[in-house]
Amino acid sequence: MRAVHFGAGNIGRGFIGLLLSQAGYEVVFVDVNDAVVAELQRRKEYVVTFASDAGEKIRVGGVTAVDGKDLALVAAAVAEADLVTTAVGVNILKHIAEGIARGIERRLENGSASPLHVIACENAIGGSTQLKHHVYERLNAELRGKADQHVAFPDAAVDRIVPLQHHEDPLAVTVEPYCEWVVDRSMMLPGAKEIQGVHYVDRLEPYIERKLFTVNTGHCCAAYFGYIQGCATIQESMADDRIAQRVRATLQETGALLTAKYGFDPADHERYIGKILERFRNPHLADEVERVGRSPIRKLSPDDRLVRPALQLHEQGGNPEHLAEAMAAALMFDPESDPEAQELQKSLHSEGLERTITAYTSLSADHPIHRRIVHHYERLREHAAQQ
Ligand SMILES: NC(=O)c1ccc[n+]([C@@H]2O[C@H](COP(=O)([O-])OP(=O)(O)OC[C@H]3O[C@@H](n4cnc5c(N)ncnc54)[C@H](O)[C@@H]3O)[C@@H](O)[C@H]2O)c1
Ligand SMILES: O=P(O)(O)OC[C@@H](O)[C@@H](O)[C@H](O)[C@H](O)CO
């Protein structure tokens, strides 16, 4: 069995590639990083280390790589694959769609009717569905009709904290021990083979919203408040009681939403929150706030981890005060190396606070959450100026 995985980065090597290899797949990574591609081709293996007391190591073998810039090679790999997965970042999906489309075209034109599942393992709601739209835009009507019969794009949720890596070995990757990969079975082709280690569910929405609105909402709060306080890592942020309390308070808000919306047991959900806060504190990791806060425009967008739960909670009659405060903190995240952070700062400078909030969150200026973001932003700025 051969899996083609786009993105030989942290989650690609540290989770998806590892799990697929353990499930018996030969893994062909597709990446645009020449050094990583060359090393994978040369060594055909790499080592994953678990961030725990034991520091266990696993050798991942049976892997290779293809240069993602070579469209013909990418299409050939997809044409031969039994499975395609991605972990490139949701905004990159459009850039890998051409190679996938040409690969699907080759499979279908060869008369090959073997089923193909394409699973986007990105932090987004409906990631595979988004990828399907990009791919279908690049297929003609006849091929789209055939693809409907033989190719499926089941949505997924993936959870494992994999920080930026700073090893001499460009393939080495250190990951937290915890992991979860959930796939929507209802979106798969009939009779599809399941991947060992993946949790299949009939309805993904409760899983992806619980993950995104707890792990990722809490994570970005720790990153944005930590950044304002000058913390370098999430571990440092969480060691500051005031930040840890803000993170917890924000997760009480998303928890109120999730338990009401999906009927989760409140005590179970409280335990889920507790486990996640423990994961953020993992002393064997140094997870940089700049990674966790990266791409604040994506994180402030209407369907992501801050605005979406805030709006839903507001519609339920709740008060997303801490979520609004976290959005205000996101507006103060300004690392020079982050193009989205720089675009936000430019907008704040040229358009002003209120228009910037509306432009990036889609919340109109008279929306109560918009007003709370303004309030918290002004207060956070004032506080920062006094320090
Ligand atoms: N790191 C985590 O803790 C974690 C956990 C769960 C989900 N995710 C999600 O996984 C995705 C990847 O995150 P990451 O942390 O692994 O990022 P990363 O930057 O480490 O990896 C992304 C990889 O994609 C490659 N890439 C970029 N453009 C490409 C292209 N056109 N074709 C092929 N490859 C390309 C990059 O070279 C890089 O190797 C994101 O959507 C992220 O939200 C990350
Ligand atoms: O990858 P992002 O930018 O969507 O979010 C940053 C982190 O919160 C994220 O990568 C987590 O580490 C991961 O989602 C844990 O499963």
Summary of the model, kept short:
This protein is α/β, with parallel strands linked by helices and 387 residues long. It has 17 helices and 12 strands. The strands form 3 sheets. Strands 5-2-1-6-7-8 form a 6-stranded parallel β-sheet, with helices on both faces.
Plain-language structure description:
It catalyses: D-mannitol 1-phosphate + NAD(+) = beta-D-fructose 6-phosphate + NADH + H(+). This is Mannitol-1-phosphate 5-dehydrogenase. It is an enzyme of class 1 (oxidoreductase). Pfam families: Mannitol_dh, Mannitol_dh_C. This protein has about 375 residues and is α/β, with parallel strands linked by helices. The protein has a six-stranded parallel sheet with strand order 5-2-1-6-7-8, with helices on both faces. Strands 4-3-10 form a three-stranded mixed sheet, with helices on one face. A three-stranded mixed sheet has the order 9-11-12, covered by helices on one side. Helix content is about 55%, strand content about 15%. Helix 3 packs across helix 4 (about 95-110), helix 7 packs antiparallel against helix 9 and helix 14 (about 320-330) packs across helix 17 (about 370-385). It is built from 17 helices and twelve strands. The structure holds nicotinamide-adenine-dinucleotide and D-Mannitol-1-phosphate. Nicotinamide-adenine-dinucleotide (NAD) binds near residues 8, 9, 68, 158 and 162.
